[in-house]
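Supplementary material to the annual report.
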Amino acid sequence: MRRARTKSPTGSRNLSLASDARIVLQDVSVRYSVPHERIASFKEYAIRRLQRRIVFEDFWALKGINLTVAAGESVGVVGRNGAGKSTLLRVVARVLRPTAGRVIVRGNVAPLLEVGAGFHHELTGRENVFLNGTLLGHTRSDIEERFAEIVAFAELGDFIDSPLRTYSSGMAARLGFAVATAWEAELLLVDELLAVGDEAFQEKCLDRIDALRRRKVALLLVSHDLAVVSRTCDRAVWLDRGTVGAVGAAAEVVARYRLMPVTT
Amino acid sequence: MKAVAGHSSALSVYDTANLPPPSWEELVQLWRYRDLVAQLISRDLKTRYKRSILGVTWTLLNPLGMLAVLSLVFSNLFRFDLPNYPVYLLAGIVFWTFFAQTSTAVTNHLLWGGTLLTRIYVPRSVFALSATGTGLINFAISLIPLLAIAVLEGSRPDFSVLWLPLGMLFAAAFALGIGLLLSSVALEFPDVIDMYQIAISAWYFLTPILYPQQIFPESYRWALNLNPAYHILEVFRHPIYWGSAAGPLTILAASVSAVGTLVIGWIVFATRAHQIAYRV
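Predicted assembly:
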């Protein structure tokens, strides 16, 4: 298979110096060290170690990835399950430190990975906004400042003071999305865009993402929905077992990915 | 573009080829996320007290219940040569309950945060800090029954009570340090938490909580000095039981143990904490 690359390693190195690059990945690799059998206890580990019976198997979730995302650019990531899409997002979200290579992220990151991270069902919507907002790195006064706006966007009204356990899953998701996108960030990370709420609310979410993009926010979007990728993104990356299968204009990459024979 | 309020207006840069030393970086990030620590503490307290009628009362009654049982057993079965034994006993129990619960909770909270920590970036130490903060608040609440018993037993609290917060602070630093060390190992082997439960109950019986230190034969008593928890306990218990501050050597030993454990725990934890996302 022909591998298309738009940039040579030297090209990306130059871009890393350009101030409008929001994400720069240089030869990024992530290795999970997976024991052949899961050893979850120290006792077991000690016994096995003495018997020299532990065999670790290296699993490279990402291997030599080069990618640059500029301000205002939307890049979609496509690929099959286990191709490394989520790992790529985690590396950019600074959750996972790469085993090798270099990651540069400029600006504040708004992760839409787990909308409503850390929501607690016994707490009220109001309390959860503060918990969720601080988890995303905002201060108490930041949140107070945007609070009314968040509640209005989530369309919760008086429900905001009821415990979260009384919410429908749609209401909780709306609240999570409203908190995650309430602040302007330089970089938006999205995993499976918009499984949130009903159609009207999804429309509203798309509008908000469009508004963010007009303000030169960079967007990295992971999705199985190829239509969404070719509609939303300028460029796309096709991940194939941890390596870049193709990178280029979104429609072109998606078309190529569609043609790939399904093998196991 | 307007920068996010509360963050610096210059673009923050995360560069894996250019990371500050982990212990320092973790401290900087912890400071940035200090409001999260407060939120987590208030979540813990609210969810604990919100839906139970006993709520705070339970925190007050629990040590008193334990005291009733233990003082019955120990003042009748084993007779120690200690006046005001209930005060001595309750001070030790309240202290140890805080230490044992907090050092364990630090590790459990990290593992609770585990699933979250594989999805979004949060400094890993926020969970340890919030567990310690929650513990300290419960510790402070349990001072109420302790002081009440002290007054009932005839002691008149004076200015020496002002030493109590120092003992509590040492206890918190020590529990946090032990908890961070434990977490660093538990990242790989969660079963060390179970092993720790066994170790801590042995530790409990080796520390003069239920009995006076005089029950050790004189020639072995020096060995008590090797137990850091003993010095810290004395800084806390001495003012309330004897009505005066612990000796300067005890305070020195306690501060060295508490601060030393915290610093070592912090460095080990900060260096290893980024591996948590690899444990899925």
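Residues 127 and 161 of chain A are 8 Å apart (CA to CA).
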